[in-house]
Design goal:
The protein has helices at about 5-20, 135-145, 150-155, 165-175, 190-205, 265-270, 280-285; strands spanning about 25, 40-50, 50-55, 60-65, 70-75, 90-95, 95-100, 105-110, 240-245, 250-255. By secondary structure, it is an alpha+beta fold. It has two domains: about 5-115, Alpha-Beta Barrel (N-terminal domain of MutM-like DNA repair proteins); about 135-295, Helicase, Ruva Protein, domain 3 (Orthogonal Bundle). The strands form three sheets. A four-stranded antiparallel β-sheet has the order 1-6-7-5, with helices on one face. A hairpin with a 4-residue loop joins β9 and β10. The chain is elongated, with a radius of gyration of 22 Å. The relative contact order is 0.11.
């Protein structure tokens, strides 16, 4: 599953191989929109979160959205592809290189200058991978999110607020800040929002130039909670938990023991509320009952 840092590195590689060079062939069997013509020069390659765009000298733009399955590969002319042709969604060739997009769910073209006319794109938030990203704007977008009841773990994946944060980073950022993934975005203070945005930008930028993601240097594997279900938390020694969350049913990892800042479950339970069964398995069973799901 590609994250913002992965796609940022991909864009850098494609920029080096394709930028300033004439295209000799373009192939996209499921393309939506006009076909870029051979002989045109690629002027720009940019990433915005999971979006990757390639622009030619006539204003034509190829937009690919990686979502969960897409990826770009770069091959020298004549080099064998590592995936079958049937998975190819777009291929761009110049005299030296072949750039191939595999399994991207969205491959389409449109023309500048009015990017807002492109259906489905809309306004994107700043890309946290970029050093000139306006972090104060991201803080404001976070604090002014239209749905104040939305959970912060879901808002972090909304690219109208910020680009670059995927499922791995949302789990790691929330753990690093100690904020509950179930916190309502309307309950966040400005200090909370600043901490979240700065942590996300720092983690993404620290991983731009190497493929192995490291968000917690003192944890084996480099990740504090992601993929560590049932393992001991490096901060509080509690157990890392997981569950599926949101409209896309993405897997969320967090530590219930120390990620309780703004947790609505803690806020709604008085200290003297009796616990029916203190065993973790029993608590998980009760939590997942249909009438209890909305509170977490």
């Amino acid at each position: 599953m590609p994250e913002g840092d992965t796609i940022h590195r991909t864009a850098s590689a494609l920029r080096t191989a394709l930028g300033g060079k004439a295209m000799i062939r373009f192939d996209a069997p499921r393309l939506i929109g006009p076909v870029p013509q051979a002989g045109r020069t690629i002027e720009k390659v940019e990433s915005h979160g999971k979006h990757l765009e390639i622009e030619w000298d006539n204003g034509m733009i190829l937009h690919t959205h990686m979502r969960m399955s897409g990826s770009w590969h770069l091959y020298r002319q004549g080099e064998q592809w590592r995936r079958p042709y049937e998975q190819m969604r777009a291929a761009i060739e110049n005299a030296d290189w072949v750039a191939v997009c595999f399994n991207a769910p969205l491959v389409e073209t449109y023309r500048r200058p009015d990017k807002r006319r492109h259906p489905g794109m809309g306004r994107l938030g700043p890309d946290l991978c970029k050093p000139d990203a306006d972090l104060s704007l991201v803080v404001n977008l976070l604090l002014s999110f239209p749905d104040s009841e939305a959970r912060i773990a879901e808002v972090l994946l909304d690219q109208r607020v910020m680009c670059g944060v995927g499922n791995v980073y949302r789990c790691e950022v929330l753990w690093a800040t100690g904020i509950s993934p179930f916190a309502r975005v309307g309950d966040l203070s400005e200090a909370d929002a600043v901490r979240i945005v700065n942590t996300a930008a720092s983690q993404l930028r620290a991983n731009l130039h190497h493929p192995r993601r490291v968000t917690a240097n003192d944890v084996r594997g480099g990740l504090a909670v992601y993929g560590r279900n049932g393992q001991r938390c490096a901060r509080c020694s509690g157990s890392v938990d997981m569950r599926r969350m949101g409209v896309h049913n993405r897997i969320l990892y967090w530590c219930p023991g120390c990620q309780n800042h703004h947790d609505p479950r803690v806020a709604n339970d008085p200290d003297d509320t009796p616990v029916m069964d203190p065993h973790p398995a029993a608590q998980r069973f009760l939590r997942d009952l249909p009438w209890n799901r909305d509170v977490v």
